[in-house]
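[Discussion] Sanity-checking designs against the backbone

I'm trying to build intuition for which residues belong where. Below is a structure token string of 373 positions. I'd appreciate it if someone posts a full sequence so I can compare it with mine line by line.
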């Protein structure tokens, strides 16, 4: 790349795609983004104790923010475990950097401050809360995120003005007891049987049927290689999902009650604790309308699709949970993504990078566009 000549969105994507880094280890990713931003008029802020950075263009109100997640997954690819951008965060960074370039070129056409948040550790569901702690949204009025969507939801060229993620909670459980001889089952409580009883009772949970939800045990470890020992100890994991935060609260309370009930009934200690918590989306109708108008302006009304509903989660929604007055939504980007998110061989139509950046630019201009003279 020649000095003072900015890279294309595809060049940025290729570099980020070829240099993935896992959560909280995005050191080179942060340095690369900073090196690009240093050639712009953006004011850059980095952090003393974590990766990621924030860049501001413009001055004053309104303060409009765009967030891109920057971490990769750790997964098995072609027989070896390594960092891999199979969730599209490489594309998100490239799209947002391209939008920053375009908005800087049009600096005379908008008012206010545009903040670009390059957030670490989304995959660990920790980065957004760290950014809140660092005060990056204290003055922000409007916040936009973005995410590539699978082909089953949107085709290339289609966009939706919001993603209604559900709430997700991962629980870690433990059953504590003592082992007994296989010939003397009356001397202990079989941890495997207690786990099966928890599963059976979870299958009997009933919430409002109009609200999608699920509770399932996703791992269970108990016993060893000796078939004549009845195990008294076990560890397990539970995956909870619900369409709303209120339903998640109710679902969690029922699972906790089940663990307590089985524990008291059999006299074995059963503990469950929340290991990871992702809130359901809290979207602002106002900003959803801004994105809808932006998609219509860039692509035409035939390419505007309804808000996407998904049982997946994203820590983006912690921003509006922690700051309720914040008006936020996520742009859903159609790109023929296959076979699916988090698949090690995930691919998508890269032509969407340019279009998506145009939609982001137009969305921001919905707020801060200066009137024509």
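Best answer:
Here's mine. Compare freely.
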């Amino acid at each position: 790349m020649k000095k003072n000549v900015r890279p294309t969105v595809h060049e940025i994507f290729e570099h980020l795609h070829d240099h993935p880094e896992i959560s909280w280890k995005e050191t080179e990713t942060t340095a690369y983004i900073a090196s690009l931003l240093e050639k712009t008029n953006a004011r850059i802020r980095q952090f003393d104790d974590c990766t990621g950075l924030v860049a501001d263009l413009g001055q004053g109100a309104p303060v409009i923010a765009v967030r891109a997640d920057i971490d990769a997954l750790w997964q098995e690819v072609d027989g070896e475990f390594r960092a891999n951008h199979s969730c599209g965060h490489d594309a998100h960074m490239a799209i947002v950097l391209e939008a920053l370039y375009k908005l800087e070129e049009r600096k005379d056409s908008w008012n206010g401050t545009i903040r670009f948040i390059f957030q670490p550790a989304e995959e660990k569901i920790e980065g957004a809360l760290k950014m809140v702690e660092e005060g990056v949204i204290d003055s922000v009025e409007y916040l936009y995120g973005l995410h590539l969507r699978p082909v089953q939801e949107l085709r290339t060229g289609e966009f939706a003005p919001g993603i209604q993620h559900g709430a997700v909670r991962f629980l870690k459980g433990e059953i504590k007891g003592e082992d007994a001889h296989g010939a003397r089952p009356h001397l202990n409580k079989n941890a495997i049987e207690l786990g099966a009883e928890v599963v059976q009772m979870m299958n009997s949970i009933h919430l409002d049927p109009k609200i999608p939800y699920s509770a399932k045990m996703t791992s269970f470890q108990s016993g060893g290689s000796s078939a004549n020992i009845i195990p008294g100890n076990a560890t397990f994991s539970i995956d909870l999902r619900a369409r709303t935060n209120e339903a998640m609260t109710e679902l969690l309370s029922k699972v906790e009650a089940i663990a307590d009930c089985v524990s008291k009934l059999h006299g074995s200690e059963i503990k469950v604790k929340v290991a990871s918590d992702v809130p359901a989306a809290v979207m602002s109708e106002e900003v959803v309308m801004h994105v809808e108008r932006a998609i219509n302006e860039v692509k035409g009304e035939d390419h505007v699709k309804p808000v996407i509903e998904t049982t997946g989660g994203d820590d983006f929604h912690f921003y509006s949970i922690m700051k309720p007055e914040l008006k936020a939504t996520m742009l859903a980007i159609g790109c023929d993504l296959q076979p699916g998110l988090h698949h090690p061989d995930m691919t998508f139509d890269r032509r969407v990078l340019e279009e998506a950046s145009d939609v982001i630019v137009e969305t921001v201009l919905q707020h801060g566009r200066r009137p024509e003279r």
